[in-house]
Each structure stands twice: as C-alpha cells, then as structure tokens.
From TrEMBL:
Ranges where the MacB-like periplasmic core domain occurs: 20-238, 458-632
Predominant location category: membrane
UniProt topology in membrane: Multi-pass membrane protein
Family matches, as PANTHER family: ABC-TYPE MACROLIDE FAMILY EXPORT SYSTEM PERMEASE COMPONENT 2 (PTHR30572:SF18), MEMBRANE COMPONENT OF TRANSPORTER-RELATED (PTHR30572)
Cleavable signal peptide: none
Name this protein carries in UniProt: ABC transporter permease
GO molecular function: transmembrane transporter activity
Domain ABC3 transporter permease C-terminal stretches: 289-404, 671-783
Protein's cellular compartments: Cell membrane
A GO cellular component entry from the record: plasma membrane
Keywords: Cell membrane, Membrane, Transmembrane, Transmembrane helix
Membrane-crossing segments per the record: 21-41, 286-308, 329-357, 377-400, 421-445, 670-691, 719-738, 753-773
Length: 790
C-alpha cells in the first residue's frame, strides 16, 4: 500500500509540474531561510559555552548607586580578584582581566609585528578550557615578565610551540618578556579573542591607578567550588566595597557587588536600573520568531495551492471512498504526498544553504557551516521536515478526505463558507507577517541610516587615529611640528581615548556651590593642544593654548557637565578634579563620545603633558587624504622605525560600533523579500482556486456583456480586501515591535505614519501584480468553453 501511495504521489508531482514546482520552491525557500537562521542561533548559543568549568565561572559586576541612579558597571578595582580569593573559601580561582584589547608591538630579531592581546591573572588557564600546546597552567602567568602566546604568534616568530618556550620577545621596544606558555588559537565561538596574555602584576605596574580601590576598569572573573551556594556568596560580597574602599561614602556613592554567570554574559549584556534587561538574546529571539514565521508562510502557501487544486482531486477522493477507502487512509495518502514534497524541498533547501553560507557568513561575521556529522543537526533537520510536512499537508488532507462522495461524483461539489474563510484567514496571516517585515525593514534602515549620518558634534570625516607608539609619544612635539609642514595635513592633536569610545569616569570633581551629599560621575580624558581645531568641535571660551602656562591645570567641559555644575557664567570659574584645582577655560558643545544607545554624559577634558600611551589625532585636508597618508606614513617610519605604522579612520571605527544593527537591517531586507515572495505564491494559489470556482460565473458575466477590466476588478477586489485587513491588523503590532527595538537607542527616529502607508501600498501593489495574472487569464477565457456543460 505504501509503495502504491508513493507511486500516486510521484505521478501527481510529475503530471502537475507547474503546481509541484511552485509548492516545492516555496517550501525550499522557507526551509533554507529557517536552516540559516537555525545555524546562526546555534552558533550564538555556543559562544563561551565550551569551557569544562563553565557552570562554575562568574563575572563580578558592580551596581553603582549615585545621583539618584543605579548604574551597572563591568569594571572593578584591579586588586579585587586576589582579595576575593583570600576572603571567600567558595572561590577556587580568581583572575583580573583587562576590558579592552591592547595593540602591542612584538619584536624578535628583525621582525616586528603588532599583536592583539590582554593582561590576565595567574589563575587564568586553570579556569578556562584553553588547550596549552606548551607550558603549564600553573607557570604560564605566575611572574611579571611571563608571556603566553597563541599558536599563530608562536608560528610567526618561532615556527613551533615547543621552540617558543623560554624565548624572549621585546614588547614595544621597552621590555623583554619570556614565553612561558603557548595556547591553542581561540575558537570562533569565543566572545573575546586575544593572541597573547601578559601577567596581571605587569598590568598593575604599568597602571598604578588600578591599585587604588576607588578606581574601576579591569574585569574580575572567578571560579566557584561545585557545591558553592551562589546566592549566599552574593549576599556576603554585596557590601564588600564599603570595607575595602575607605573613601567610599554610601550616602553619596555606594557600590554593591553581584555575580553574573560567565556563560550568560555574551547574550545578556544589557542592564537597566541594576537589573539584566536583554542584549544579543533579543536578536536570537527575534530571528527565531522570523524563522518560524517564514516556515509557517511556506506551509500556508502549500495549503492554499493544494486547496486550489482540490476540485481536480475531488473525483479521485470520491471514487476511492466508493470502493471502500477509509478516511484515515486518505488522510495518510495526502499527508504522505506533502511529506514527499517536503523531502524534495529539503534537498533543494540544503543545496541553497550550502551555496548561500559564504555570503551569509560574510554578512553576519560568523563562521557557521553545515556539520553533516552532527547527530543533533540531523535530528533537528528530520524533526523540521516532519513537522513542516504535517503542518503543510494537514489541512488539505483533512479537507479532501471529508468530501461527500455522492456530491462529488454528481458534480455538485461546492465549498462552504467555513473553508473559504479559513483560506482567506491564511492569506491575511501571510500578508500580515509580510507587512510586519516590510515595516521592520523600513524602520531598521532609517535608524541605521540616521546613526551613520547623524551629526556627532565633531567632524569624523578626514580624521585619522594613530597610536602614539614609541618615539611618536616621547617625541610628540617634534612629530607634530614636522607633520604640520607636510602636504595634506590640516591639524594635529592627541587624546587619551578614542573620541567615539570614552569610558573612563570619576566622581572626584568639586566646584563652588557643589552639594557635598551628591556624587556626580563625569566622563574624563586627557587631550593635547589644538584639540578643538583637530576634532572640529564648537567651543564657548577657548581651547587649551601654550600662551597660558596655567592650562596644565585648567579644564574644558561639555554642555552636559555645565548643566550639572550649574555655573551661569562658567568661563574662568573654579573646578577641581582629583584634588587638582584649576579653572574652566571653555565649554564644548555636546558631542557624542559613546554609542547612540546612551545619552551624552557630563565630560571633563584635561591637558596632559605628553602624548605617551594615547592616540594622535590627525585632521587631513579634504580631498587630499592619499597625499596626507603618504606624508604621515613616511614621517612615522622615519621617526619610529622599530614600530610598524598603523592607523584607523574615524568614520570606519564609528561604523564598527553598529555592526549588529547593520547586520539586522541587511537580514531584515532579505527576510522581508522572501516572506513577500512566498506569500505571493500563496496568493497565486488562492487566485487560481477562486478563478476555478467562478469559471461559470465569469462565463455568464461575459455573455451578458462584462468587459475584461470588469472581470479583473471583480476577482481582484476580494483579494484587496484581505490585504487591507492584514494591513489594519498588523500595523499596530509592527509599531509596537519596532518601537520596543528603538527604545535601545537614546537617539532615534520616530515611526511616522507614512512608513505604514508605504508598506501598505507596497503590499497592495505586490498583491495586485500577483492576482492580476490569474484574473486576466480567467477574464480572457472563452465563455463557450466555461458554459459548454450547461
């Protein structure tokens, strides 16, 4: 019997090539998209989940209470890891870890290359499952001059990991470090990548401020005993900073420590009012819902097309019932046909995924692949195939198997209003989802475009960042003087951090009239002379100038800082930071120095005596970037021959801040297009079904004088009503979803009414184009053919 059903199913596929092709194509596209999204979600869920001690690993975070706010900070004091390990027996290992990449120049013989890495505590390799190719976890980072490098770095300088052990590498032409361990290159699903690790004591020696309990910045990672009670440990740790930081006044500024599971940190990185409030997990959920919706749209498309042909299969059902076929067998037959089509669609979907993976990886920045040896992958694939086949074939099977054989064989088959409403409801659902994706695509595109084109308050065009390595920092004044004489250079200054990513803050600021019971956090960094000119920011008052020797203790503030300080006439007014009294010499117009997800914070700029360990800012003449780059590179190589020349363009760095949003926008475009395309296939099926059901009515109307345009309008208006209903139902949902997404940005677009108008007109236009083919075909049919049975 099974072989007989398979033969019948195959015969139906072959005899109805157009129908079968459309059905298989719709299912294949839906399954291919769902598979790609599944691979992406699987990769996201794998990030940082490969460590053997994963469930015992935690990040130590701070809840900071000040100025009526609760802020969650990932930075902690540099001395905290060792203190926690001493105080709490539940903690087996603890390690400090720097929060950002360090670009250091490694030199071995004549070879000098910039490498990317971090500083980490001595317990690091005991905590994390990072295979050591040479060296041991206990000795890898246990002395200030120890250096652990990756397999890639070892191959660059020493060929093999074993040859690297015990060798010296000179870093930044300043100090020699001994290679004590070589670790395997970090996998793609590691959230933080580094090619070297330096000992934590070395970091503390380089940054004396990290030794003070009042300063935050480094990260603290701990590993607990398997039997440790996390809630009890958190309760004991909560107010520890009050004991360790003697200067902490809880009435002004309080800190509470808490723990976040390390394996959750990647996906759950956002906090609001001290509580976890999402992160990349939102995109995982969003794309998961999109995958289900695309598969549902494809299944609905199958249902509609199958129903459109139901009149042709009705006699077959009638004959089978007359000769004794039970309804269960008929359901099995039609579901089996759907499963066969789904299996064929799966083969095409796998081929599409294989072809599209390189482009998909390029778009998402991933390295996902089809792991055909993974049993879980095959189980999920089989489950998705079976579920798709059942869902797609269920309604046609139940509908056709319920037909009355007497009515069918008499030729008086008519479909009730219930079946019609169900099919129309499916179309409304399809186009509702399509409308949701169209609105989402427009809103995401506009927000990303707003971000990329927004005036940040400084000119990021023709602005270059150059690390102040070696002689460029120690002989900055000479470098600047010579560079300004070269063609294509407009202005030169320096800055302690990049102007789009200022993160250092302080509460050690006082001024005349300050309320002693209020603690306000100010973002702060160091800058050089000509800062205003180089960054092209607007200032009331003046920039730092060599004409004023006292400027080494003076300050520039932004408008947000002025608002909190409260001076009505700020120029020349006193301001003290870190017990260093000075005066305000200028007020800079607010500019964005952090992500647009965050509001502009109060900012204080101080003048630093030199550019060591900072970023040199170079403003080039418009249209002379190539010439300026040549001048910059030649001078840097001449003055700083032991360091490779490196630079960053400000606009490129800015775009890197919003890679996730840009990726979502691109994917939304593709998913919206595919959803509309598959929905149109379903609409095509319903149009064919309607035309088939109203063949005789159309014939009568034509005999009575109806024109082709009358017939087309008659058939099209029913579908337009469905699309309009879909637009009305989905528009509030689309507004709600996209408004929630926009809440992640402090600076955002509004969702205007015309967004829904454009999306609606687009949906209507696509629906009309889809329906018009069947409508015109039916309207042009010879009425003699349609009425010859009468």
């Amino acid at each position: 019997m099974l072989s007989n059903y398979l033969k019948i199913a195959w015969r139906n596929i072959v005899l109805n090539k157009a129908f079968s092709t459309i059905n298989i194509l719709g299912l294949a596209l839906g399954m291919a998209c769902s598979l790609l999204i599944f691979l992406w979600i699987q990769d996201e869920l794998r990030v940082d989940n490969y460590h053997a001690n994963g469930p015992q690993l935690y990040n130590v975070l701070e809840r900071q209470f000040y100025d009526g706010k609760i802020r969650t900070g990932k930075g902690t004091p540099g001395l905290l890891p060792d203190e926690l390990k001493k105080l709490f027996p539940e903690i087996v290992y603890a390690a400090g870890f720097t929060g950002s990449d360090a670009q250091l120049t490694f030199a071995v013989g004549d070879k000098a290359v910039k490498e990317t890495g971090r500083w980490a505590g001595a317990d690091w390799f005991n905590m994390y499952s990072i295979p050591l190719l040479a060296g041991t976890a206990e000795t890898a980072l246990n002395a200030p001059n120890n250096l652990a490098i990756s397999r890639k770095v070892a191959a660059t300088y020493f060929d093999t990991p074993q040859q690297a052990i015990g060798k010296s590498i000179r870093i930044d032409n300043n100090r020699d470090y001994q290679v004590t361990a070589v670790f395997e290159d970090l996998p793609d699903h590691a959230s933080t990548k580094y090619d070297f690790l330096l000992n934590w004591q070395d970091c503390l020696e380089r940054n004396s401020w990290m030794k003070e309990w009042g300063n935050n910045g480094p990260r603290t990672r701990i590993m607990l005993r398997p039997d440790a009670n996390v809630a009890n440990l958190e309760a004991k740790m909560r107010f520890l900073m009050r004991k360790l930081d003697k200067k902490l006044n809880p009435k002004q500024f309080d800190i509470q420590l808490f723990l976040q599971p390390y394996q959750e940190a990647y996906l759950y990185s956002n906090f609001e009012n001290g509580q976890q409030s999402g992160g990349r997990i939102e995109y995982v959920r969003l794309f998961g819902i999109v995958a289900v919706f695309l598969l549902l749209i494809a299944c609905i498309n199958f249902m509609n097309l199958a129903t459109a042909r139901s009149a042709r299969r009705a006699r077959e059902v009638g004959v089978r019932k007359v000769i004794g076929a039970r309804r269960g067998l008929l359901i099995g037959q039609f579901v089996g046909e759907a499963l066969l089509l789904t299996v064929l669609a799966l083969g095409i979907a796998l081929a599409l995924v294989f072809l599209l993976l390189p482009a998909f990886n390029l778009l998402t920045g991933k390295h996902v692949s089809l792991n055909l040896t993974d049993n879980t992958f095959w189980l999920i694939l089989l489950g998705m195939t079976f579920l798709t086949g059942i869902v797609a074939g269920s309604y046609p099977a139940l509908f056709l198997s319920s037909l009355n054989p007497v009515r069918v064989l008499k030729g008086s088959l008519k479909f009730g209003s219930g079946a019609r409403l169900f099919r129309q409801g499916l179309v409304v659902f399809q186009f509702g989802l399509s409308m949701l994706l169209i609105v989402g695509t427009i809103v995401v595109y506009r927000q990303v475009n707003y971000i990329q084109t927004k005036n940040l308050g400084f000119d990021r065009e023709n602005l270059i960042y150059v690390p102040a390595d070696g002689e460029l920092g120690t002989k900055y004044e000479t470098f600047k003087a010579e560079l300004q004489q070269m063609p294509g250079i407009q202005a030169v200054s320096y800055m302690g951090e990049l102007p789009i990513n200022l993160g250092s803050s302080t509460g050690g600021v006082t001024w005349t009239g300050k309320d002693p019971n209020v603690n306000i956090q100010f973002t702060q960094t160091s800058v050089g002379y000509d800062f205003v000119k180089t960054l092209k920011v607007k200032v009331k008052g003046r920039d730092f100038s060599k004409d004023f020797s006292t400027d080494t203790t003076n300050y520039l503030i932004n408008e947000a800082a002025l608002q909190r300080i409260g001076y009505k006439d700020p120029i020349g007014q006193p301001l003290t930071m870190w017990q260093r009294p000075g005066k305000i010499v200028g007020v800079i117009e607010d500019f964005h120095f952090q992500s647009l997800h965050d509001p502009i914070q109060p900012l204080i700029l101080r003048l630093a005596p030199n550019a060591t360990q900072t970023n040199i800012l170079v403003r080039t003449q418009s249209g002379q970037t190539s010439q300026a780059m040549a001048s910059l590179e030649s001078l840097a190589k001449r003055m700083n021959p032991k360091f490779p020349f490196s630079y960053q363009f400000a606009d490129a760095e800015y775009e890197n801040l919003y890679k996730s949003e840009s990726m979502v926008g691109e994917l939304a475009n593709y998913f919206a297009f595919l959803a509309i395309f598959i929905s149109c296939l379903g609409l095509f099926g319903l149009a064919a079904f309607t035309a088939e059901q109203r063949t005789k009515e159309i014939g009568v109307r034509k005999v009575l004088g109806a024109s082709v345009s009358n017939i087309v309008g008659l058939l099209s208006q029913d579908f337009l009503k469905l699309v309009l209903i879909a637009i009305v139902i989905s528009s509030p949902m689309a507004w709600y979803v996209m408004n929630r997404w926009l809440q992640n940005f402090s600076y955002k677009i509004g969702i205007e009414w015309w967004v829904f108008a454009i999306a609606g007109l687009l949906a209507i236009g696509i629906a009309l184009l889809t329906v018009s083919f069947q409508s015109i075909k039916a309207a042009l049919m010879n009425p003699v053919k349609s009425l010859r049975s009468e």
